[in-house]
UniProtKB/TrEMBL annotation:
It is found in: Membrane. Keywords: Ion transport, Membrane, Transmembrane, Transmembrane helix, Transport. SUPFAM superfamilies: Cation efflux protein cytoplasmic domain-like (SSF160240), Cation efflux protein transmembrane domain-like (SSF161111). The keyword Membrane applies. Its main location: membrane. Residues 215-293 form the Cation efflux protein cytoplasmic domain. This is Cation transporter. NCBIfam families: CDF.
Length: 303
């Protein structure tokens, strides 16, 4: 007995906002890469890498909202939601590599001052474009992020990049006014330091999902207590909770039901109560319960 209610992770309106934000972010990223090549600014290149993290986060968010609407089939009974996880794994690995390279290059420039000149004015113009674009993206997502955890994740990513753009602007102003090129390398280190924890956190989350660990914030003991508090429930065992991808937890359990409740035909009501409990209190919309009479556990063990 189970409930296969759609996860309802994201609506079409949220997908449209995410797509617009992605277009803005990707466009500015390309501009920053070109600006970095023309100005010699490592900070702009680092900020472009930072923008890449935002673009990747928006892509992942769009994937999550799209695959949630795709029906399962006989081959992929859970649908295609794991595609997001593998995408996040590739994303995290790329980010680690980029941030390590940026940090190495920044330190090299700091140890060898004067070896690289930076066109501060061009750097400043491109950084301001990035700041404005991130501000627009945040404004687009500001309302929807209050209603969707997925959109909120993208919103926070853009906020982080806004801070990175501000750091590049400060470095550019310093270069324009003082000619101190090391400011570019310092801003690059700051941005790399912002990327690495996010990349490591992403890889840890991927590892947790692939290991089928309980989602962060999910307390199995509390779920057991809620199930046992349901009228007619005698015991619960074989409790498992994992997630297909971020925001898509799955729950299964064997629930021992009082024989009188089964005889009175209350099994359907108990099942609906259990499913509502998981959905309302623990945000688990895909739950599977096996209702069984007392003594069935011993039968399973013998089998």
């Amino acid at each position: 007995m189970h409930d296969h209610a759609p996860t309802g992770i994201r609506g079409a309106g949220n997908r449209r906002l995410l797509a617009i934000s992605l277009a803005i972010t990707a466009s500015v990223m390309v501009v920053q890469i070109a600006g970095a090549a023309l100005s010699g600014s490592l900070a702009l290149l680092a900020d472009a890498a930072h923008m890449f993290t935002d673009a990747a986060a928006l892509v992942i968010a769009l994937i999550a909202s799209t695959v949630a609407a795709r029906p399962a089939n006989d081959r992929r009974t859970f649908g295609y939601q794991r595609a997001e996880v593998f995408g996040a794994l590739i994303n995290g690995a790329i980010l680690i590599g980029l941030s390590v390279w940026v940090a190495f290059e920044s330190i090299s420039r700091l140890l060898n001052p004067g070896t690289t000149e930076v066109a501060g004015t061009l750097m400043l113009i491109v950084a301001i474009v990035g700041l404005v674009a991130n501000g627009v993206a945040m404004w687009l997502l500001s309302s929807a992020q209050r209603r969707s955890i997925n959109v909120r994740g993208a919103y926070l990513e853009v906020l982080g990049d806004l801070i990175g753009s501000a750091a590049v602007i400060i470095a550019a102003i310093t270069i324009v006014t003082t000619g101190w090129y090391q400011a570019d390398a310092i801003a690059s280190l700051f941005i790399a330091a912002m990327i690495i924890p996010r990349a490591v956190g992403l890889l840890r989350e991927v590892g947790s999902v692939l290991a089928e660990s309980a989602p962060k914030g999910t307390h199995v003991r509390e779920i057991r207590e809620h199930i046992l508090a349901t009228p007619g429930v005698v015991d619960v065992h074989d409790v498992h909770v994992w997630q297909l991808t971020r925001g898509a937890p799955v729950f299964t359990a064997h629930v021992v039901v009082d024989g009188v409740a089964l005889a009175d035909g209350r099994a359907g009501g108990i099942l609906r109560t259990l499913q509502s409990c998981l959905s309302d209190h623990f945000d688990v919309e895909h739950s599977t319960f096996q209702l069984e009479p007392a003594g069935h556990v011993e039968h399973e063990a013998h089998a």
